[in-house]
Design brief:
By secondary structure, the chain is an alpha+beta fold. It folds into 2 domains: 2-43 and 261-384, no CATH class; 73-239, no CATH class. It has 12 helices and 10 strands. Strands 2-3-8-5-7-6 form a 6-stranded mixed β-barrel. The longest helix is centred in the C-terminal third of the chain and has 33 residues, at 306-338. It is elongated, with a radius of gyration of 30 Å. The protein starts with a helix and ends in a 10-residue tail after the last helix.
Length: 386
């Protein structure tokens, strides 16, 4: 009977391909759009991920996410260093500054100032130069994406690609010279702005004059110290917010989830994909059943039970669902591979396979149910009519 079910399914190649294409489209949308959403949301805390060495981030208690900078006084650094359980604490500056390029245009950059002595918090991967080169006069390190694109030198050909920055090139940050001494690889930020690293003292000279310029205090706990307890002690002693790396990521993630329209926009796209896929697959599968009612009637007249007919329809649904799901996931993987060097945010964790698989399963169940009801109510006498 399984062979008969497959022959019935594939007999009309047009409807067979229509069902598969509907499920492929639904699987593609329910996998691709969440993958872009996950990639975009992971960029919201990418800066925290790149700074992997500190255990705890200390900041103003009103900070809502990583880019919501509320500067502290430099004296807060020494207060944190004096708390029991802290192995070391270093300052970090993070701010948005305008870089003046060689053609006179301006580009907003994320400028990160690292502790002059230790350079803790620097870029995770150096492609050219060394982090220690930041100790040179007027030196900065630029991320590779910014060096190739937004901070690149204008092309001699109108409309041509920018000429990438290289070691030895110069920029202007707040009317002060900055010499590129290194090119680094960093995770793209949420706004995909260029990232420029320098020392803390030099970053303060680049930044506009303010009374407070300390953005974060990066803390390393002593070996065996409970991070949650240490965070509480820092908060009680200083009144500042102290988060572990995971807690700071979650704080940033929750801010973007609740205060932007990103989840709603992507959620609507996924829902539309599910509805369209269900409509196409359900309607096509139902029409396929209607055209084969005489065959089902013959089987019923020959004594085939409803349970056997149910198994045949489920086999058909499982087959087209598996093919459509596989094609949709495969196209998503190819799309992500093709976009790997572009600005598009794309992250494909294994959980998305389960999510889209569940969605395609629901569509197949819906399509099979409307067909099953029609077949179960079928009178074998239909075979002898007409």
């Amino acid at each position: 009977m399984n062979h008969v079910a497959l022959k019935m399914l594939m007999g009309d190649k047009g409807k067979y391909m229509g069902i598969i294409m509907g499920l492929t489209f639904a699987s593609l949308i329910m996998t691709q759009q969440p993958a872009i959403f996950v990639g975009l949301m992971s960029r919201s805390y990418s800066f925290i991920s790149d700074v992997g060495l500190p255990d705890i981030w200390v900041m103003d208690s009103k900070v809502q996410f990583v880019d919501d900078i509320k500067p502290l006084q430099d004296t807060e650094l020494y207060r944190v260093r004096g708390i029991s359980g802290v192995e070391w604490a270093t300052p970090m500056y993070k701010g948005l500054l305008k870089a003046r390029l060689t053609d006179g245009t301006f580009q907003t950059c994320i400028v990160v100032g690292l502790d002059d002595a230790t350079l803790i918090g620097g870029p995770p991967v150096m492609l050219e130069g060394k982090i220690a080169d930041l100790r040179r006069s007027d030196s900065v390190i630029v991320d590779i994406d910014g060096a190739r694109d937004k901070l690149g030198k204008p092309s001699s050909i109108p409309g041509g690609k920018p000429i990438p920055l290289k070691i030895g090139d110069t920029l202007e940050l707040n009317d002060r010279r900055a010499i590129v001494v290194g090119i680094a690889k960093v995770t793209r930020t949420f706004q995909s702005q260029p990232v420029v690293y320098t020392t803390y003292s030099r970053a303060k000279s680049y930044a506009p004059r303010e009374r407070k310029l300390l953005s974060f205090v990066l803390v390393k706990a002593k070996k065996g110290e409970n991070l949650t307890d240490l965070s509480h002690r820092i908060h009680e002693a200083t009144g500042l917010a102290a988060y572990t790396q995971a807690e700071f990521k979650e704080l940033t993630y929750e801010y973007f989830m609740h205060n932007t329209g990103i989840p709603i926009n992507f959620g609507i796209s996924v829902l539309l994909g599910f509805i369209v896929g269900a409509a196409i697959a359900g309607q096509t599968f139902y029409n396929f059943t209607l055209e084969n009612l005489r065959q089902f009637g013959v089987l019923k007249a020959m004594g085939t039970s409803n349970l056997t007919l149910l198994r045949m329809i489920l086999l058909q649904a499982v087959l087209v669902g598996s093919i459509g799901y596989g094609l949709g996931v495969g196209l998503t993987a190819l799309f992500g591979y093709a976009m790997r060097h572009t600005i598009l945010a794309f992250k494909f964790p294994w959980q998305l396979l389960l999510f889209s698989g569940a969605g395609v399963s629901l569509i197949c169940i819906f399509a099979a149910m409307i067909s099953i009801l029609k077949v179960i109510r079928l009178e074998p006498a239909i075979v002898f009519k007409g």
